[in-house]
Amino acid sequence: MAQSHSSSSPSSIFVIIAIATCSVFLAVPSRALEAGSRAEKGSCDLYAGSWVDDESYPLYDSGECPFIRKEFDCQKYGRSDHFYLGYRWQPTGCDLPRFDGKDFLERLRGKKIMFVGDSLSLNIFDSLACLLHAAVPNATITQKTQRDFTMYAFEEYEVVVALHHSLFLVDVDVEPEGRVLKLNSIKSGEIWREMDVLVFNTWQWWNRRGDKQPWDYVQDGVTVLKDMDRMDAFHTALLTWANWVDTQADTEKTRVFFQGVSPSHYKGEEWHEPGVTNCSKETRPINGTTYPGGLPTASLVINDVLSGMIKPVTLLDITNLSQLRKDGHPGMHNGLDHMDCTHWCLAGVPDTWNELLYAELQS
After folding, report:
1. Distance, CA of 309 to chain centre
2. C-alpha dihedral over 44, 198, 329, 48, to 10 degrees?
3. Catalytic positions, please?
4. Which fold is adopted by the domain 49-362?
5. For the Trichome birefringence-like C-terminal domain, which residue ranges apply (predicted)?
6. Which of 9, 124, 7, 6 is nearest to 67 (CA)?
């Protein structure tokens, strides 16, 4: 595997390697999401189902993948149980297509896919890199990293897999008074428009406070506030993103996805274990098809915003199926020496997110 690094500007990072871009994507873009609906394959809801044992999983050996950050490399950092690796998502009325890395690359030949969002986007990005590396271990893969952008180019296929680290999708600008979260501003759209597949995500950082809050003020329209209701701020920012898609994205060329809320597991009462305050001793999924604690409010906000959009956007509705996987987090096995019940081990749950993305791209 060939790797290199570049210091080129963010606006030019994705043209370092010549990529032939077609004007028509794999299939006609999916319909705009209707209120409360879920993306479906045929008549089967891919997102309704349960986790089943499958000895053919995981889809790759984490020890063989050079792309896993230490945050997600649970086996390397001492996780001794392997139960969490051997589960497959089984929709109730059909089968989820098994990820085929070579077919994925052929479908995207000459195209660029970008994940845009917080560290949960990084989680699915690293997962996809591992899935593809496992399928074509001898491929020439060129790596470019610049500020908030990372790119892997699979040169034989002329495929770019990219990540734009963007906590809120909307802008955080440094101004004389401090860092300002601007709920009505998006400046990164020019780069997003170059992509053939976009997978957006945001939620994890919207309730951060104190030292973990990466902004000092929030601006809504012309009003600058020290703080405001965080769910209202999240909703306003999503409306700004939705307006960008509706007015700027060329969905005749680009498939647009929104990655649903990825859950954390710190409250045992949500899965009928009162007194449990983290995922450290969880080694098995929740049985059944529904998470006892119910869906997070942020999921309802996302559905509401997507239902009002003009352009077609597909929801990767990962929330409920991921809620069932209280066993899938790193815990203390993450190379960072702190409890993590928010992100996911690799190999693991994000590989299923990519299987769902793969299925949607075939629709």
Report:
1. 20
2. -10
3. 119, 340, 343
4. Rossmann fold (3.40.50)
5. 96-359
6. 124
